[in-house]
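Here is a typical sample entry:
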Amino acid sequence: MQEHIDIKELNERIQRESAFVDILTMEMNKVIIGQKQMIERLLIGLLSNGHILLEGVPGLAKTLAIKSLAESINAKFSRIQFTPDLLPADLVGTMIFSPKKEEFFVKKGPLFANFILADEINRAPAKVQSALLEAMQERQITIGENSYKLEEPFLVLATQNPIEQEGTYPLPEAQVDRFMLKIVITYPSKDEEKLIIRENIAEKFPSVNRVLSPEDIIKARNTVKEVYMDEKIETYITDIVFATRFPENYKLQNLKELINYGASPRASIYLALASKAYAFIKRRGYVIPEDVRTVCHDVLRHRIGLTYEAEAENVNSEDIINQVLNTVEVP
């Protein structure tokens, strides 16, 4: 009985504290037409302190989305265009000698911001990507002998071309695994496209108002962690992840030949965090199985390695996730 009362109280508190989600979404919708899922996933990443990988063709408002998010939170925004000749120092900064003072001083690079848009991340060589990786994983940057802590919130939003384009460096699995979500962005509908045209040829392009501060986001992150998750949901999450590793144990023998490697333990952590953040966005104090199913594709699609057989049979990670979700028992 005690638990029931606690959940009711927690639910009411989270309903109050998550009110800003609607305000933030409204601000974003002023400048972004459609792309509801992308905006929702950006908020999930922001609320659960996870980085996001966006895949889609150019012109789908990826840059505009993160820039608008940074403006509405009054946070510092940096956009870095990744190119094959980029150096790690172009991201993190470098030591510069001052002849006047006869000493070296640190010139900080664009990574010292709250929101980083790493545009076309797969165009840069591995050593540049590893410099970004330290910032993403350790939340710090090393220049010379000193390490500098990055200010929270710190969110990396990386965009990448669909891999088949020439002149790209596919991201190593260990790096892709560091991204909490991978979102595949599709074209807008006809009606949305008409609105996009109308908005862009109008006299004045809409602007975003500041509705939150970085401190509000940090506070909300702590509240998200308090969202209640029943043990049955935890079991459901581990079953989904284990079904990608040992499909034969879940009556999915047909997947054994198609999966090269299953999802890592980060998948379980991020599935739990993303489900809690999604429940919070939906103004709920507890996680339901539907929350897990909603975020599952975005958390898992870049964490399942496929065999040559899968490619030959034209099976992708989406198909495998669908089969897993249709087979694993829902609590």
